[in-house]
Write the structure tokens for this entry.
Amino acid sequence: TDFHRSNYSVATVAKSTTTYDPRTRSWYKSCPTTPMALQWSSVFLSTVPTLPVINVAAPIHNATGTFLGVATIIFDLTTIGVFLGLLDKTPNTMTFLIDNDGLLVSSSFSQPLLVSTPVTSNFTGTVASNCLRSDVANGAAENVIVCRQKANEYGYKPLRDLIQQEPAYVASGRAGSTSVFTLDGKRYYVAVVPIATPLATGMGWRFALFLPEDDIIGGIVKGRNVAIYICVAVVAVAVIIALVVITLLLRPLDAVAERMYRVAMMQDVDDND
């Protein structure tokens, strides 16, 4: 469609029903006023329900180009994991989406991305930047601290090993290339690709894919091993058969040799021997 945000009109509200002023919020203040510009937030946790979300803000202008305000939309990121799980891949291939804070946005691995810790209603401790306290007083079902998983602490060991071995590679990614690493005692084909699109400027997200080498050549190696075992078995059977045949063929020669020895020793030789 050939629509433009500048063609939209803003309705006038005669009386405000709340004291909430969005112009005081960081997403409003940080949004660029350039037409068609987008401002993405970092991933954060919504309060009710507690889900990883991201906010995108865009300036609104009238037909003459006058700045009117900022429109914002919050996206639920949980469906990305469903999408990653439906990708056509080998059985043990794992995919991850990592944000610019080193926290997981989504994962095809079975471990949850959010960790909940129950707390008392009078909890006064420090809440980490990757966590959110959910209060019953604010409408939550229970008092908990919910934290997003850090990529370097996640349950998928090859990912932790890669971050430990190549932190710069994971932090920035490398578009259009695949590398081979030995992770968790096995060889993996790994690609860490930065998400580069004009609509995601400044997000700093990376898409990481881990493909075990066994998924590619495991069947070939298994077939090779079976062929080797068959060859060894055939050779062993052939050797046994050859030994039996040779023994049967040489058995009469033992008797002939015995008789020749007795003749040579001037001993009587019985024709029945």
Remarks:
- Helices lie at 26-29, 78-85, 157-165, 167-172, 213-264.
